[in-house]
Design goal:
The complex is a heterodimer of chains A (about 270) and B (about 260). Chain A has about 270 residues and is an all-alpha fold. Chain A has a domain of about 190 residues: Cytochrome Bc1 Complex, Chain C. Helices cover about 70% and strands about 0% of the residues of chain A. In chain A, helix 8 runs antiparallel to helix 9 and helix 9 packs antiparallel against helix 12. The longest helix of chain A is centred in the C-terminal third of the chain and has 33 residues. Chain B is about 55% helix and about 5% strand. In chain B, strand 2 and strand 3 form a beta hairpin. Among the domains of chain B are: about 25 residues, no CATH class; about 130 residues, no CATH class. The longest helix of chain B has about 40 residues. Classes of the chains: A mainly alpha (about 270), B mainly alpha (about 260). Strand 1 of chain A pairs antiparallel with strand 1 of chain B, so a sheet runs across the interface. Chain B: InterPro entries: Cyt_b/b6_C, Cyt_b/b6_C_sf, Cytb/b6-like_sf. Chain B: It is found in: Membrane.
């Protein structure tokens, strides 16, 4: 451990010995000046190593190695279904956040049975008064439909190309969980406008929960806020739809994609 | 421990002027990180085991890499920028464009406000839950027991739930039941047939859920719900079994041309 000043790395002399343009000189001078104080070269080296690890040494893919492209090109569009579900999910997230500015999860305001509630009225307001609101709701609704469809087709692709086999069992199970959560996402969103179909879909949900032995009543209270539908149901569905599920599903999608990244894409062979 | 050649913090080597107690008794190596074996020696218990394992697995990796005939190369095959990025952007904008287009030409229906007092004639979830709704309409096959005087064991709703559980359970278990290297439907006609059966069953269950829309008798629709999937599965199995021989011949020929047996 020597603290003696060392001059064998005389960067300035090295700089002078080079034949550099003004821009290059300015750049190197700045770099050396910064590096003497902050040792940024260490970090750059780290970045470089990571870049090379990520990008440069890549094995040939299975289809490349055995020259199967001519046989399998027609499978490849099916491999974009996972991406499509994520894209649709993002579109639904953005349009949903915008809808959330105007929507009110409340059953207040109905004097008699069958009167419009605050939730219903806010939906009508979005569709009739808010600038671009009709389109916004339509986008949210359709991106949700696209997401569910893409997720189902994605599962079929994975099944029929045998992509779930060892070592990918965990990701298959994660995918099954994600499908269930996607359906729950759709169901909770379906209830929010609090129209006739929403209400009676939720009614079927409560009856199903109550039919479950042992945990049924507990589940009905947790998810629907009681055995009859009302304000509590709407708020629980709302929190599920805009707070709980977004975090859980986003995290699980990240893990799902991360595992695919680590394990590589299973190609047919 | 002090000597004239060891410099002090101010750069001098004057022993008399030393006030910092000299260099530390143990001097870590300058710019060497400890190797796995060194870390192993300096640790004990679980940490030592961990390092031992790391050493082993690194050695294993290296052996495998030496033995392997796997082709590695410096890729520059399909560059991330700009090729892959442009391709992804194109696909993404295409999908988003399709969604916006559909959203603009087919806005959703918006019905009457909720009325707990009047049950509508038709109760339906969104289309993707039709299959699930169909599972709740399986009353005719809910088993009744003679010993209970023809009473059913579980309510119809509970049977629907059990059916959901069974379906999700089977789907979850698939990777543990079907093992091996086969990837294509032709290689495993049975599993492909099972998949087709499942897909058709989902469709027919959806049809059962919206039974009011079909001008057929309920008994017939109910029978078709279970007959069609089975028929679809049988046809798939037959077709794939027929395709299989020629297909596998081509595949094996290609494989052995590329990797001739030793």
């Amino acid at each position: 451990m020597s603290l003696k000043k060392q001059d064998d790395m005389d960067h300035n002399a090295w700089l002078k010995s080079q034949d550099l343009t003004a821009i290059e000189t300015a750049f190197l001078t700045t770099l050396i000046w910064l590096d003497k104080r902050l040792r940024i070269v260490d970090y750059l080296e780290l970045l470089e190593t990571m870049y090379y690890r990520a990008n440069l040494q890549m094995p040939k893919s299975h289809t490349e190695q055995y020259d199967l492209d001519n046989k399998f090109w027609y499978w490849y569009p099916l491999y974009s279904l996972g991406s499509l579900s994520i894209i649709a999910y993002l579109l639904a997230a953005v349009s949903g956040a915008l809808l959330g500015f105007y929507y009110a999860p409340s059953t207040a305001g109905a004097v008699a049975q069958g009167d419009p509630t605050a939730a219903y009225d806010s939906m009508v307001m979005i569709m009739q008064d808010v600038q671009f609101g009709f389109m916004l709701r339509s986008i949210h609704r359709w991106s949700a439909q696209f997401m569910v469809a893409a997720v189902f087709l994605h599962m079929l692709r994975v099944y029929f190309t045998g992509a779930y086999k060892e070592p990918r069992e965990v990701n298959w199970i994660l995918g099954v969980v994600l499908i269930a959560l996607t359906l729950l996402f759709g169901f909770s969103g379906y209830v929010l406008p609090w129209k006739q179909l929403s209400f009676w879909a939720a009614q079927i949900g409560v009856e199903l929960a109550l039919a479950t032995p042992i945990v049924g009543e507990w589940a009905a209270q947790l998810l629907f806020g009681g055995f009859t539908l009302g304000q509590a149901t709407l708020v629980r569905m709302y929190i599920l739809h805009v707070f709980v599920l977004p975090f859980v599903v986003t995290a699980l999608i990240a893990v799902h994609v991360g595992i695919v990244w680590v394990q590589g894409i299973a190609e047919p062979h | 421990m002090t000597d004239d050649t060891t410099p002090m913090t101010d750069g001098g080597t004057d022993d008399e002027a030393r006030t910092d107690g000299g260099p530390p008794a143990t001097v870590p190596p300058d710019d060497e990180t400890p190797t796995w074996s060194e870390r192993k020696e300096h640790s004990q218990g679980l940490a030592q085991l961990t390092y031992q394992y790391f050493e082993r697995s690194r050695r294993e990796d290296e052996d495998l890499r030496t033995e392997s005939t796997y082709v590695e190369r410096d890729v520059l095959g399909f560059p991330t920028w700009p090729h892959e990025t442009i391709r992804n952007l194109a696909i993404t904008s295409f999908f988003i464009g399709i969604m916006l287009l559909v959203a603009s030409i087919m806005p959703g229906h918006f019905g009457d406000p909720a009325n707990p007092g009047s049950t509508p004639a038709i109760i339906l979830p969104d289309w993707y839950l039709y299959w699930s709704f169909g599972l709740l309409k399986l009353d005719p096959i809910n088993p009744d027991l003679a010993v209970l005087g023809g009473n059913i064991i579980m309510s119809n709703e509970l049977m629907g739930l059990v059916a959901h559980g069974a379906i999700f359970g089977v789907i979850t278990l698939v990777p543990f039941l079907n093992k091996g290297n086969a990837r294509r439907p032709v290689e495993e006609p049975g599993w492909a047939a099972l998949g087709v059966t499942g897909v058709i069953l989902a469709i027919t269950l959806a049809a059962l859920a919206i039974q009011n829309f079909f001008p057929v008798q309920l008994e017939l629709l109910f029978s078709l719900t279970f007959m069609l999937p089975v028929a679809g599965g049988v046809v798939t199995y037959a077709v794939l079994k027929t395709m299989r021989e020629g297909y596998m011949y081509d595949l094996n020929r290609r494989y052995f041309m590329l990797r001739p047996p030793k």
